[in-house]
Amino acid sequence: MHSWVSSIGALDLDMELKVAREFSKSNAGSMRVVPVVTGEVLKAKYGDKAIQEALNFKQYDNDLFIFQGVKFFSDGGYMPETMHMGHPTYVDGGIGGPSTYASAKDFASTMKPWWDAGFHIHVHSNSDVGNLDTLNALQLLQDSKPRFDHRFTVNHFGVPSTAMVFKIKALNAVVSANVSYISQRAKLQYPAMGTDRASTATRLGMLVRNGIVTSIHSDAPVSAPNPLQEAWSVVTRRDVYNDGKVWAPAEALPPSEAMKMITINAAYTLGVEDKVGSIEAGKFADFTVLDVDPQTIPAIKIKDVAVQATVLGGRVIPVSETKQPRPLP
Question: What is the bridge-based pairing of β-strands 32-38 and 3-8?
Answer without folding.
Answer: parallel
